[in-house]
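Give me the fold.
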Amino acid sequence: MKRIFTYLILLAGFILYGSINCYADAHIGLQNLKCEMLSNPSGIGTAKPRLSWQITSDIRNTNQVAYQILVASTPEKLTAGQGDLWDSHKVNSAESIMVNYAGKPLGSRAACYWKVRVWTNNGVTTWSKPATWSVGLLNPADWKAKWIGCDRGFAWDSVSKFSRLSARYYRHQFDLKSGIKKATAYIVGLGHYELYMNGQPIGDQVLAEPPTDYTQSVKYNTFDVTANLKQGGNTIGTVLGNGRYFTMRPKYKPKKIKEFGFPKMLLQLEVEYTDGTKQTIISDNNWHFTADGPIRTNNEYDGEEYDATKEFPGWNNAGFNDNKWLKAELVEAPGGKIEAQMNEPIKVMDTIKPISVKQLKDNVWILDLGQNMAGWLRLRVKGNRGNKVTLRYAETLQASGELYVANLRDAKVTDVYTLKGGAEETWHPVFVYHGFRYVEISGYPGKPELGDFEGQVVYDALPTIGRFETSNDIVNKIYHNAYWGILSNYKGMPVDCPQRNERMPWLGDRAVGSLGESFVFANGNFYAKWLDDIAQSQKADGSIPDVAPAYWNYYSNNMTWPGTYILVADMLYRQFADQAPIEKHYASMKKWIDYMRVKYMKNNIVTKDKYGDWCVPPESPELIHAKDSSLNTDGQLIATAYYYHLSGLMQKFATMLHKPADAQFFGTIKQNISKAFNDKYFDRTTSKYSNNTVTANLLPLYFGITPTAHKQAVFKNIVAKINEAHDHISTGVIGTQWLMRGLTEFGRPDLAWKIASNTTYPSWGYMAGRGATTIWELWNGDTANPAMNSRNHIMLLGDLIAWFYQDIAGIKTSNAGFKQLIMQPAIINVLDSVNASYQTAYGTVRSNYTSTKSGFKWHVIVPPNSSALVYVPAKNMDEVTEGGAKISTVKEIKPVKMQNGRAVLSIGSGNYDFEVKY
């Protein structure tokens, strides 16, 4: 009886919805399929989903040889084996991920029930248990609802630089007859919404829906609300918060900040009865609303204020008297295309108990959660009606014990709760989030206790799919800090920081960082959605902004920041075998790279750059950016090297998409750039590029521009520069994206390890040693000007996390999606052990090794339907044993060759225990 995991992949992105358990009466089998979209598998945004599954087996070298998929329109037909929508019959294929649905055309609202069975070289599985998905509203004509809202503020609101706009409460009563078979709600709530049916909250998502450029697209969510409705009177209630729709600083810098308008909503409830009739309830001007409710203001930068004395019990239930409420107004649509949300919702993903609460002064306390995080504080309080509890947030403290808020700029980051009095009350904000470790509490009645508070960690509901641990405590702490920094900055889009008055989706922060993140979290859907945001921000001439969605009007026309568009598309393909984003965005990517060539390339050198190697460690601790020219890298060199590298990716994409003319074109560009680059920047007598910074030498070497005969000499210059910095990092955002893997690829993983495990400035370990629990924005974030020293950024991680998994753990893919693995850990003399795992689309890969003076032990897991080349440190093949037996006697292991002190072995799926005794 073996447990197996099956995943259902939907839409153009890598949609990893989750798994549940089942058992099969064989050594191989399939896990029950499950689709999780918001709170249910309803309303996917495509009529052509892709299906995937995973196999488990305790038999080594298990490979799929065929599959059969059944898709039915009812559970009964599926149970009877009738694939009336699609019976693939037996398909001779090893494909188990991204299998295209090829059945009857699916329209809006189509319900689909499916199962799969698999033939392998070691036997056939039973049918999986049924899984289901349904199609959402695919066509504009499907929407009968009308946009409702109110395009003005009220007396208690303030539309200004520091806006104070209250939440809007909407309600609608309606009657249903008996025999409700199915009820489905579709909602767009801008900027954020909460949805209730007959007083019951619908779904466990928070900060819904995800941010977009609302003039380009808006996301709708779908809910099965059958169990929430009844015969007779029913009530829908919604609350609309501001989110990114009603901008945080309207009328402040109109040339910089994009505005959208006041909150608005589109809602459609479709009810199907057992007698076959249907009823549709829509948002229109028959609804009622008020803005004079308990949420008095909600602003992502400034906080939320809630007055419990303004509550109206029962407002979202039948029978409430709303005669004093206003009539809902019909308003203009936001302009963007209405699309199903296919990335995971934001949820409360974790909770943190505070570690201390200390009195600062009379009626003022400082709460310490022990971890810098993003989310909010949930409080429990009992007091008199009208008492106000004020919560103010910060990442660090001053020497006096007061909050340090200088780095928050003009963000007020303050929540206020007004008690209704009487019994114990609990509260947390719902339409804002904060980045914080410390909370200043004032006005709390009585003495606050630790048990009265809880930190609720809020981020996109992405499964954690990677684990990494070593025998080095500093590196483990750095990984912990990276983990918390990454999740803190997932907010429906990748933001740069969660605390100050910025929180923007800067492209440059995630260029290679997205690759490292993909080993930790299943971020395929998340980044597929972001690529759409980037595409929608592209101007007609091809220009791409530095921030997307383009909430800030920054179109500075660099190569490095917008180039993230291409790098992320490549990441999704390599990590998740998802080619769809490349197909979808190829034309836009090509339009951008052509735009940059035509406008800014002269004699095959790109002449435009704004940011350079952003945030290299400066020469003085109080500086944000280095002023010493010997530390900074020529921006045109960086831009041109990136154009070369990105052209190589476009050449690969063109070949994948069968565009030979484009592939040849990009190949020619690479040749031209390479010659011009070396002519301009390379000193052949010294093998140095430009002013010999690590970044200046590393980019052409790693990207393949450097002439072969000079590669080792260029690399020696890189090593020499790092040695000059006492084996510390000297690169900024750009160079660090390639540094750790570059050093390892050219034979110095030991030097990369020194950089990674350093504890003195500048280093990631220095941050940890100074009490950091996330990653700083600056290497000298504890001493630099507070205008730019966020304590929760991830842009300086570069390729560190990817290097941890790919080179220290030795988990790489030789093709897209880890079907063929390369497991080749870099052995570091001072590193005793590594224990890492990664959930690929095929299953879990594990690399757990110990390395001592007496030998090397390595536990390896390769998932079914994949294989691996493993590189075992050994002098010869005879030294290597597996499970206590010489590898020559193990039939599932095929010796390949000896290479650079490694025994290279070919293995299929299964668990292996390799050992070499010295």
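The chain has a mean pLDDT of 94.
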